[in-house]
Amino acid sequence: MANLEDKRAFVTWLIETITLKEKEAYWILNYLLNHDAILNRVHIVEKADKTPRGLIVSDNSETEEGLVLYKENHPFGDAQQIFHDIRMKYKEPLFLEVRFSGRDFNQQYQLVLEENPFLSSFDTISDEMFEKVLRDFEEKQYQEKLNCILDKLNHAIDSGNEEEFVYWSIEYQKEKNKSDD
Predict the structure, then answer these.
(1) Best CA proximity match to 13, nearest among 51, 40, 46, 44
(2) Of 73, 88, 118, the domain-final residue
(3) Using an 8 Å Cβ cutoff, are 70 and 138 in contact?
(4) Residue range of the domain that includes 96
(5) What is the pTM of this model?
(6) Among candidate residues 174, 149, 175, the one with its CA nearest the CA of residue 164
């Protein structure tokens, strides 16, 4: 867990350095900065929308909205409503995600970044990576099926069973034709 001073230094740097998409994000971050009781309960994480109460703040380089609070997977984009929620529920944990260009290589960000306890293993895998793994799995499954059919075909040849040979030859051709589609 990041300590209060590191979080304060990061939020200060963020306010002074990054051009955020929504001006209201600055005054919410300033509010967090000036209230230690709240800042102590802020956890800077990835994928804050997967938490029970997650705030996402974005810079101008991002295509998503610039300021969104997620409460139990329901997004709220009204800055007044977000501020009111933070102020009234100051004793509850707040998970903050900050989206800005170069964050993966920013030392201050990496210093305060915590593991999101609400993510499953699958949430950390990108969609592209998931699709690649799925394609690789399907290809491996296909090759295994072909190998199984070839084993049965070879067994039919070795045993001289013409009926099995014809059956497994047809099955092999069917599978090969499926891959051509």
Answers:
(1) 44
(2) 118
(3) no
(4) 4-118
(5) 0.69
(6) 149
Count Cβ atoms below 10 Å from residue 145 Cβ, excluding itself. 14
DSSP state of 46: S
**Which distant-in-sequence residues (6+ apart) come within 8 Å of 5 by Cβ?**
none
Do 102 and 138 fall into the same domain? no
pLDDT digits (tens, 9 = 90+) for 12-27: 999 999 999 999 999 9
Same domain, 132 and 85: no
Contact (CB, 8 A) for 1 and 114: yes
User: Apex CA 39: angle with CA 37 and CA 40, to 5°?
Assistant: 65
- SS3 of 161, please? coil
Q: Which structure tokens are listed for 179? A: 């891959």
The residues that bridge with 95 in the sheet, in sequence order, are 43, 54
